[in-house]
Amino acid sequence: MSSLNIDMQRGVVGDQLDPDSMARVLDQRQQASQRALIDASCKVPVLLFYGSAVFWLLIGTVLALISSIKLHSPNFLTHEAWLTFGRVRPAHLDVVAFGWASMAGLGTSLWLMCRLCRVPLKWPGMVVGAAVLWNVGVLSGTAGVLAGQSSGIEWIEYPFYATFMLFVAFALVAVWGLMTFGRRQPGHVYVSQWYLFGSMFWFPWVYITVQLLTNTPLMVKGTPQESIHWWFGHNVLGVFFTPMGLAAIYYLIPKVIGRPIYSYYLSILGFWSLALFYNWAGAHHLVGGPVPAWLVTVSAVGSMMMFIPVITTALNHHMTTYKHFGVLRYSPTLRFVVFGAMAYTIVSFQGSLMSLRIFNEPFHFTHHTIAHAHLGLYGFYTMVMFGAMYYVMPRLTGHEWSSARLIRVHFWTVAIGIALMFVTLSIGGMIQGFELHQSRQGLGDLMRQHTQTDGLVSGSINALSDFFGGFKAKQDQPIPFLAVVRDTIPWLWIRSGTGILIFIGHMAFAWLVLANLLGRGERRTGPTLFHTDADGYRRSLEV
Amino acid sequence: MSEPTQPSPEPQKPKPPAAPLLDTAADNASDQVDVSAMHSPIMREQQDPRDGYEPVPLWLITIFGLLIFWGGWYLATYSGGWRGDVFDDHPAALYSGQSAAPAKPVDPVELGKRIFLGNCAVCHQPDGKGAPPTYPPLAGSDWVNSDAGRLQRIVLHGFEGPVKINGQQYNNNMPAFAAKLKDEHIAAVLSFVRTNAAWGNSATAVTPQQVAATRQATQNRATPWTAAELEKITGP
Amino acid sequence: MNFGPLLFLGIFLTFASAWIGLVFAPSQQLKDLQAMRVEGSGQTNPRPYSGLELEGRAIYLRDGCVYCHSQQARGGDYVNDIERGWGAGPVGEPRRSLPQDYLYDRPVLLGTSRTGPDLANIGSRQSDDNWHLTHLYDPRLTSPGSIMPSFSFLFETRKIVGQPSADAMKNIPVQPGWEIVPTYEAKALVAYLKSLDHAYAVATPGSGK
């Protein structure tokens, strides 16, 4: 093969190779041909998962924009039943969760599993079948929700036929993943494999439990349903998306910068504490609700204990990247993945604190929660999946990414978009929460009064200090609900703006993926990096 | 947590990995668009991830110890004795030995406010300003600040048809509350509304006896009042 | 961590622990909860939903009301729910929502968002059909500044043929010769909303309020 004739490493001087580098070259060639075999076996199913994922990402973004606009302009698209907010919003959630996030995650998981177990995927045709079935499930489920067949239970809106298809498809992928794990080549099992193993085993368990016990005639009586519901709702993130995202981070950071992961001991501690604590966290969605106090308390403790895996994992990720930040200048994969890893740290810290009664009291039921959810599923998970796709796809298609400029557009639009969305909704949600609870006067009213008398700057400061100073001051009469609504509207407008920014990024990404799948666009043979000084890239890797 | 069954022989500080293959412009000169291009992403890959073996820092273990201690305290304090019938977040309610809060004598203004928010505020709005032109205001309303008997009749039996309030025309209906609210409830809510200085109202309070008398006097009334009827009884 | 069965066992056991804690235990603990009999009548508190109310509930689920409206009045520290008049309980004695209130709810719809107000007891706060229908058709007519979408697709706008319909909407502006009539679905939804009324006391040892 002519590929083996390429100069492979530094230190080759003419024909003279010292024995050490000779062995390394041979070893590398062997590994490379093994990887090529694995990638060839994964090619069709993983690309099918990826392509579908990007399609659903675009659909999900459009649905998101419609829902977002409806929140501040309620007369937008109201005449058709299928376009009402209560159908478009769950359709958005389901499409991004089960269409985009799951399909991108499963594609990445399968590829990672094969790579880490060092065996090719057996009978990839079955996985292709699973991907097709998954697509049919998402399509029919979303159509069902829009057509008015939603179960009305958050996260499991899909009608039974779609649920059934998704379950069968997932079972196929999981069996394939676990079979691959069983056929692994002897040797070390890497931390990513533990997470993948976990997610493939845990997700069917939660999915079956919640479907049977809250969405069929077998449903349990009364409010324990909601405990089960949120045990699932939180676990979709906790034991499905999070492990897949963490597995990708654990693989890609050391892979791209060519360093070992910081500490095996931290990996062990992080994995097992996540396994133990994350799935106890669900009932923190019910703080103050009509469920026994102990239920909320154990979930708050479970959530706070999540500090253990989060700090551990953060140390492990960030200490691996530490001193290699130079690579971020060049590698799109690393930039997305490290953004995701940092967002994971932030969102997890925030999530743990939000489970405490003192923080939950003002923030529950507000847009603050929405900000948190987007930072988790987008800032962390989706960004990691973008990074993974930037890494995996060229290996499968054999085409390099066609445009560094478009990747740059993608990165900056979505990074700024999600950061702004998080900040905007967090602030808006905080104001909303404080106004729903005791506060002397709404922030909007205070602003109007103070800026009239004291001018814009000092008036705003006075209004803010009055507002937050007045929190918890017992009120004769709460701020009218509609005044609270009015004060959230400016923030909802800004959120729609950030949504448009993110949509632009997704268009750029979709174009890149399409061009890569079709082998179109500017033809290049080197990696597509943000900056083209190859020496600088080489140096950044050698620090 | 278990030790790795096969400690990797990998040294703590691995040798620098082979530099990635970069197909630079010079390499492309020959323009080999063939298998080598197809595999170039794979050929230039770094080696597969390995584990480093940095120890777990002591400060981390300390933080975790403190967290677990806190968790135990929180469970003990807020778990409500693990009972299925304890919902309150405050542990005090459980450990004070009281099965329920003692019935406090309710302040009439407080009672009136509660009844207003629970029965009237959806239409007349929590701030009493109403939703013109659909629902009339109670704050600063000429009807509220006039005759008390008129308001008692409206609350007892409802209201319908055109009416002019503060110069604005309304035409809607209000349901009857005779069955739902007792005399003292109606008295409390009317007093709350009529004496609410923050709303700009300055009329007299209403007593339960007055409401009882009105209820007695109008007990045969089965339909909502109209503006014309009320003005006939209590004056314009 | 290279031994597959051990990995599996750990993954199984950690997960089973939470399944027992958050799924099995609360269901067992509250499984004997019963609706309370009302002295001297065949009724119970809460009462089962009527057929029309159940149809309305299906529309509530179908059109996703739960994404903006919670159905739980919180108590204890969260007294603001009570101060807003959202509490359950008899007139003048508001209380928090309790598990008893949800015995006939399949599925239970506690909700996680208050983009709109809590609806656990909306039937008690507003028992007027006309208000509910007007509000569904155009929320801004009854609640100025509301951001709730119009549910005009639950209504029929038609030309008056002969006599105007008895149930035509009265407060909604419409061009002369036309009328807006609520469909069966709109009426069912309103019947469900009005049934959200937990105006009864529940003795709960230890709950304080």
Quick structural gist:
The complex is a heterotrimer of chains A (543), B (236) and C (209). Chain B is mainly α and 236 residues long. Chain B is 40% helix and 6% strand.
Features:
heterotrimer; B: 236 residues; mainly alpha; two-stranded antiparallel sheet; 10 helices; C: mainly alpha; 7 helices; 7% strand
Structural class of chain A: mainly alpha
Strand residues, percent of chain A: under 5%
What coarse outline of chain B follows from CA principal-axis ratios? Answer: elongated
What oligomeric arrangement do these chains adopt?
A: heterotrimer
Which strand-content bin applies to the residues of chain B? 5-15%
Overall pLDDT metric of chain A: 89
Helix fraction bin of chain A: over 70%
What order do the strands of the largest sheet of chain B run in, or round the barrel if closed? 1-2
User: Which structural class do the helices and strands of chain B define?
Assistant: mainly alpha
* Unreliable segments of 5+ consecutive residues of chain A: 1-15
Overall, the morphology of chain A is globular
Quantity of strands of chain B, as a count: 2
Q: Cα distance, first to last residue of chain B?
A: 85 Å
* Tally of separate helices of chain B: 10
Number of helices of chain A: 17
Uncertain runs of chain B are 1-35, 93-102
By DSSP, the count of extended strands of chain A is: 0
Biggest sheet details of chain B: 2 strands, antiparallel
The helix content of chain B, as a percent range, equals 40-55%
Task: Please describe the topology of this protein.
The complex is a heterotrimer of chains A (543), B (236) and C (209).
Chain A: H1 19-72, H2 85-117, H3 124-147, H4 160-182, H5 191-214, H6 224-257, H7 264-277, H8 293-305, H9 307-321, H10 332-354, H11 357-363, H12 367-397, H13 404-436, H14 443-454, H15 456-469, H16 481-518, H17 534-542
Helix pairs in contact in A: 1-2, 1-3, 1-12, 1-16, 2-3, 2-4, 2-6, 2-12, 3-4, 4-5, 5-6, 5-7, 6-10, 6-12, 7-9, 9-10, 10-12, 10-13, 12-13, 13-16, 14-15
Chain B: H1 25-28, H2 35-43, H3 58-78, H4 91-95, H5 108-119, H6 121-124, H7 148-157, E1 159-165, E2 168-174, H8 183-194, H9 208-217, H10 227-234
Helix pairs in contact in B: 5-8, 7-9, 8-9
Chain C: H1 4-29, E1 36-37, E2 44-45, H2 51-62, H3 80-83, H4 122-125, H5 129-137, H6 139-142, E3 155-159, E4 178-182, H7 184-195
Antiparallel strand pairs in C: 1-2, 3-4
